[in-house]
Design brief:
five-stranded parallel beta sheet, 38% helix, disordered N terminus, six-stranded mixed beta sheet, elongated, alpha/beta, single chain, 11 strands
Length: 329
């Protein structure tokens, strides 16, 4: 996590409060390394400080899918007998838990593949709703591997829960061809133990027959990384000589953990006890959900909110700020 040793370039640390992608170069590394700052003589330095730990709970998914098998009636159409009209994912953690469950079923039942829920899923044709492009890309991988007849909806066009809920109200009600609320199959919301209810609340509070029932399945738990305080402290110490540096927050929980770790928030959550230090340190969020949470809960205003929840959106927001607010060329 050291500052770049190349003295010919000024390092601009980009401290990302997330785990780097496993198995391949993280898209944020690619974005910030491939597109250097507009200011000549400087270079971005992506640094990763995981703030949260996620523990998948695949048992509920496996138990649910175990109810569906083609062994009894091979002539049945899967979609017609599945209890849910679609699946909702608002985080990559939920997608990872779902993928882990399917992988587990595949490994355990490889000797009788035709009778497993995987054979059933291969015939299933329902929408898979995703918040943001990263979650959508992860779902596309599951679709290719296990659910080829399904379609991924949302993604780039639904970067927040609010936008996804609007998309679902329009799209799913359209698929139901004007059916009354009680006649529509519910949607299944796969989520963590800590989550915002904006999507299910919006869908279930829609007026009249626009209303869509949502059932929730908790598939992972989230907790703060036990090493986060020391990790972020060490990273900030290592980058203390940088003229500019950015901290990028990816969730409301991550934002709260950051404020507590840096002493910018009192234990009593008082809005009057925030304090900012190091004028060259700036805060960016992945989207408006985290930005609004920080402002509403802690009266804390971030410097940049990405217009799109993506590596490119974060980089563009940072560069726009530095060009207009810091008068960078």
């Amino acid at each position: 996590m050291a500052i770049l040793e190349n003295d010919s370039k000024e390092s601009i640390p980009i401290i990302l409060l997330k785990n780097p992608s496993a198995g391949h170069t993280d898209p944020y590394t690619s974005q910030f390394v491939s597109y250097p700052p507009m200011s000549p003589g400087s270079a971005y330095e992506p640094l990763y400080v995981p703030v949260l730990e996620h523990t998948s709970n695949t048992a509920p998914i496996i138990n649910l899918l175990s109810l569906y098998s083609q062994s009894k009636r091979p002539d049945q159409v899967a979609t017609a007998h599945f209890s849910f009209g679609g699946l909702i994912f608002t985080s990559q953690r939920a997608v990872e838990a779902f993928a882990s469950a399917l992988d587990s079923i595949r490994l355990n039942d490889a000797h009788e593949l035709s009778a497993t829920p995987l054979a059933y899923l291969r015939q299933l044709a329902i929408p898979l709703y995703a918040v943001g492009p990263a979650t959508a890309r992860s779902l596309e991988e599951i679709k290719k591997k296990y659910m080829p007849c399904c379609c991924v909806r949302g993604g780039e066009q639904a970067g927040t829960g609010e936008l996804l809920a609007k998309l679902i109200l329009s799209g799913y009600n359209g698929l139901c061809h004007g059916a009354k609320a009680e006649q529509k199959r519910p949607l299944l919301f796969l989520t963590g133990a800590k989550h915002r209810d904006i999507v299910p609340t919006t869908l279930m509070s829609a007026p009249g027959d626009q209303r869509i029932e949502v059932q929730t399945l908790v598939v992972y738990a989230t907790s703060e990384s036990p090493s986060f305080v020391s990790d972020i402290t060490n990273t900030l110490n290592a980058t203390s000589t940088a003229r500019f540096r950015w901290i990028v927050i990816f969730s409301p929980t991550g934002g709260e953990s950051l404020l507590r770790a840096l002493g910018w928030l009192s234990d009593s959550n008082s809005k009057n006890n925030l304090r900012r230090a190091n004028p060259g340190t700036f805060i960016a969020t992945i989207g408006p959900t985290t930005r609004d949470y920080m402002r509403t809960t802690f009266d804390f205003s971030v410097d940049v909110c990405a217009e799109t929840p993506s590596p490119e959106g974060v980089r563009n927001g940072i560069e726009d700020f530095m060009r207009t607010q810091l008068q960078q060329p």
